[in-house]
C-alpha cells in the first residue's frame, strides 16, 4: 500500500516563449515567491505554502482542460477580490458540501481552483 504524505509539486505547461508572461502572472497577480535556480527543462518554480508549482514551456496546442491544481486558502472571498482587481474572470462549478470554491484560468488556459473548507 502506498502511504502518501503530502503533495510535493504540480507541473503546468505553458506555451513556448511565454516564461516571462508566466513569471509576471504568478508573481504579480498570484503573489507567489519564485524559487531561484537552474531547474530541469528551463522550468520556473514557485513556492505555495508547503508545496511547489512548476511551470515549463512545451510546444504544441494547449488543451482547454478541466485538469487543475486546487489550492486551499484562508478567506476565500479576499482571494477572489484580489484576483478580480487584476481583471481575472472567476468561474464556478458544482457545489461540494463542506467547502466553497471557485476557479480561474492563467494566461495559458491552465485551470486553477481556490477552495476554503467551511467550519
Automatic annotation (TrEMBL):
It holds the Pfam family Glyoxalase. InterPro entries: Glyas_Bleomycin-R_OHBP_Dase (IPR029068), Glyas_Fos-R_dOase_dom (IPR004360), VOC_core (IPR037523). Signal peptide: none annotated. It comes from the Bacteria. Residues 6-117 form the VOC domain. PROSITE patterns: VOC. This is VOC family protein. The lineage of its organism: Bacteria, Pseudomonadati, Bacteroidota, Cytophagia, Cytophagales.
Amino acid at each position: 500500500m502506498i502511504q502518501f504524505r503530502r503533495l510535493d509539486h504540480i507541473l503546468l505547461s505553458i506555451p513556448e516563449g511565454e516564461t516571462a508572461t508566466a513569471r509576471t502572472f504568478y508573481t504579480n497577480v498570484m503573489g507567489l515567491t519564485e524559487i531561484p535556480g537552474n531547474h530541469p527543462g528551463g522550468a520556473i518554480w514557485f513556492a505555495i505554502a508547503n508545496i511547489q508549482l512548476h511551470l515549463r514551456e512545451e510546444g504544441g496546442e494547449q488543451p482547454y482542460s478541466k485538469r487543475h491544481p486546487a489550492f486551499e486558502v484562508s478567506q476565500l472571498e479576499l482571494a477572489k477580490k484580489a484576483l478580480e482587481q487584476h481583471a481575472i474572470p472567476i468561474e464556478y462549478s458544482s457545489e461540494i458540501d463542506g467547502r466553497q470554491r471557485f476557479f480561474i484560468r492563467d494566461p495559458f488556459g491552465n485551470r486553477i481552483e481556490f477552495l476554503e473548507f467551511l467550519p
